[in-house]
Amino acid sequence: MTKLPPYVTDCIDSDALRASLTALTLETDGDGSSTKIRAEVLKLLKTALAEARADVKRRFEADNDGTLCTQRLSHIQDEIIRVIYDFAVAHVFRSINRSSAERMALVAVGGYGRGMLAPFSDVDILCLLPYKQTAWGETINEYLLYMLWDLGLKVGHATRNLDECVRLAKSDLTIRTAVLEARFIWGEESLFDELVERFDVEVAAKSGSEYIGAKLAERDSRHVRQGQSRYLVEPNVKEGKGGLRDLHTLFWIAKYFYRVRSAAELPKLGVFSRREYNLFKKAESFLWAVRCHLHFLSGRAEERLSFAVQPEIASRLGYTSHAGLKDVERFMKHYFLMAKHVGDLTRIFCAGLEDKHVKTTPPLSRLFNTIRRRRRKVAQSGDFVIDNDRITVADDEVFARDPVNILRIFQLADRYDVAFHPDALTLLTRSLKLIDTKLRESEEANQLFVDVLTSRNDPETVLRRMNETGVLGRFVPDFGKIVAMMQFNMYHHYTVDEHLLRAIGMLSEIEKGEVPHDLGLATELMNNLPSRKVLYLAVLLHDIAKGRPEDHSLAGMKIARRIGPRFGFTQAETETVAWLVEHHLLMSMVAQSRDLGDRKTINDFANIVQSPVRLQMLLILTIADITAVGPGVWNAWKGQLLRTLYYETESVVAGGFSHISRDQRVAAARAELGNALEGWTKPEIEAYAERHYPAYWLRIDLNRKIEHAELIRAADRAGTKLATTSTCHEAEGVTEVTVFAPDHPRVLSTIAGACTVAGANIVDAQVFTTSDGFALDTIFIRRAFDTDEDEDRRAERIRTIIEQTLKGEEELPKRIAAAVESRSSRVKAFRLATEVLVNNYSSDHFTVIEVSGLDRPGLLYDLTREMSDLRLDIGSAHIATFGERAVDVFYVTDLTNGKITNGSRQAAIRRRLTRAFEGTGEDDEAKDERAAVA
């Protein structure tokens, strides 16, 4: 049994605890079997366990040493188990002459077997027997387990004899790993020693390749379940890519194949260098510290590092705001750098296994069978060879001999469409110091980089390998600053560098036409651009200045102007890249938050764009940017808005000429719908078409137009003035609810309130009125269920509540207050200032009110109700959420259809909407304002 250092074992005094338990039996001649004594025993154990764990928690909060914390918790658990076992044997089930079968060894398995126990993790125990179970062993085992359960511990347990352990380890990978990590706690140590010996000889010695293949396949499956990328902004510390389980997998394989007992032995075997082993320990210690804080803070075995806890853990670990980054962003950047290090170590480790001929296939298609090794030289360079369809170095001096080779290997991998050999990636990681100013200024090196960036093959994959090895961040230092950088918001799903690489991948797919039908315009425009490389560089750089005090669009523009000439771009090309980076958010903002049927919106946007080519590039860049943000962020609606803005602006920047004029597009849309409507007569189609204004025809896609037409027609035939419908969109992660009802100032407010009552989170909304006085409002709510059947039932319930409220059958205010009060929200972790802007220059006919700030349940209801009370007529509403940020824009007039020009009235609107946004209620001033308006 391993002897632990005093700073681990001094957290519990097991000798004193034993003495206290024994003292309870003095009056019963050492017999501790009574119910009364058991209750006293449990009380003493609870006190000892609580005090010891509290002491460990205090020490951990002082030193932030996660590894030491887990070792101390594991030791406390060991001592509790030993004390209970000894008390049971000596005082509860006393046996003078036990047979050879009446023996057992208590063995820790799983994470507990490593001698590292997270604060709220399960305690996994194996009761190891020599033969079959005996009555004595059963009673001891039962007493131990019930005592542990009564202590409030989550115990995973198994009782097996030696033969069963070996037999099951051969057939079950989970049990094999459990035995691999087994650690003796107490009882008959010779039994445990026999288990280890038999496991080594009968199981491990004969199945090294099989076990390694299975564990790596298991790891890959786990990564898929957890979201594949190690750069998800709410990572799973235990199971996610780059998390603790990946480190554990490395150690399991090392222990199994190399027969080591600790990771410290790996440098001696040449698997890791001393620096890499230190990195292993550093990553492990950091991840354990994060996990322990996560458990203590949550009060349970929580493994997901959610937005709600990230700021507090950052504070506990001592991070502070610096150089434009919040404390939480600096903490998460460190986290993702550690996750990247785990990936580096995995790659290095797998390379070592491959040298041993244990792992013998490319990582992208892992097959664990032996294949014949084939090596051939690369035609353009004697420094590289193709080994089993993977590029690698001819010798270990390739990069030192010519540092340009650091870029050349990526360009060759792209040209020949081959994967990277782990040996080459490992050598690249170890050669980063060769990337200096001279290499960065090398014309050849920069041209090789541009070749990779603008490749027609798979630039995303090659750039990702470049980033994972650290080459990209060293060769482009501005990119290095955003590697592993997290933006503390709910909108972006990935770190900044991962977002940029995914955007490059999306741009490549657009160029190849490997995109859905609604992105066909982007592909058409991309293939007719005068300079595709300008767009690739703009996409790579558009967020490169994130995390700086200056606005990242302006700072990024400056970086683009500096870096363009280095990459061989002309002055004109560089200026275009800089313009695209500066304005990369503009088109999305205008499309989603402005009325595209208002000519001033189009003219103002065109004045900024000025050039048809810039308009084309900006559209493609915007699409690549949005789609790379994360799953479900892009949807067909946003695509339709962007296409509408593009077509509306194209005629202006082209000098008044457009391939398709506005009137032609309206007519074409009407004709398209007419052709798609089955069973409609021509007079019906014409009459229906007259009910919609031009903006409707330009902003809604065909499928929705058809659904709207059928909904309205059915309502007309039924003689009802109220109808609803819903559609689930699994790919976008939203459910669409459409409401057709008589128009009045509170329609949108009522719909929003009904959704709040139903627990539905509105992520987008589109509002139209018809020429005959009806409202046609469409809202998108965040999906709640995985299956369409469940989501359909939920949508039907929401529609029922909407209909009841519009009919006046529901009292919203009280129900909304109760719903908001009972609903917790992820946005509580965020702090955003509320901003209300009122302007008369964005539209010729409307006053534009833009409100933004922290999203919350019931927000849209409160805003629209307040506007109704302010006697504002909403001409159009543009509702958008960007993670935790709500940005709602309303085009309004007063009741005489005029703009709001009075300064005091505008000030009152700002005050009232600010209070409504923040949910602070009314003060006396607000009540006076309401009375004055009334």
TrEMBL record:
NCBIfam families, per the entry: PRK05092.1 (NF003467), UTase_glnD (TIGR01693)
The primary gene name is: glnD
Copy the domain comment.
Answer: Has four distinct domains: an N-terminal nucleotidyltransferase (NT) domain responsible for UTase activity, a central HD domain that encodes UR activity, and two C-terminal ACT domains that seem to have a role in glutamine sensing.
Please name the InterPro entries in this protein's record: ACT-like_dom_sf (IPR045865), ACT_dom (IPR002912), HD/PDEase_dom (IPR003607), HD_domain (IPR006674), NT_sf (IPR043519), PII_UdlTrfase/GS_AdlTrfase (IPR013546), UTase/UR (IPR010043)
Name of the molecule in the record: Bifunctional uridylyltransferase/uridylyl-removing enzyme
Q: Which PROSITE patterns match?
A: ACT, HD
Q: Which cofactor does it need?
A: Mg(2+)
Domain HD, by residue range, is 496-618
Q: Which organism is it from?
A: Rhodobium orientis
What's any GO biological process attached to this entry?
A: regulation of nitrogen utilization
Q: What does this protein do?
A: Modifies, by uridylylation and deuridylylation, the PII regulatory proteins (GlnB and homologs), in response to the nitrogen status of the cell that GlnD senses through the glutamine level. Under low glutamine levels, catalyzes the conversion of the PII proteins and UTP to PII-UMP and PPi, while under higher glutamine levels, GlnD hydrolyzes PII-UMP to PII and UMP (deuridylylation). Thus, controls uridylylation state and activity of the PII proteins, and plays an important role in the regulation of nitrogen metabolism.
Q: Where is the ACT domain?
A: 736-813, 848-933
Q: What is its EC number?
A: 2.7.7.59, 3.1.4.-
The cross-references to HAMAP family, in alphabetical order and at most eight, read: PII_uridylyl_transf (MF_00277)
Q: Can you state which reaction this protein catalyses?
A: [protein-PII]-uridylyl-L-tyrosine + H2O = [protein-PII]-L-tyrosine + UMP + H(+); [protein-PII]-L-tyrosine + UTP = [protein-PII]-uridylyl-L-tyrosine + diphosphate
Q: Which family does it belong to?
A: Belongs to the GlnD family.
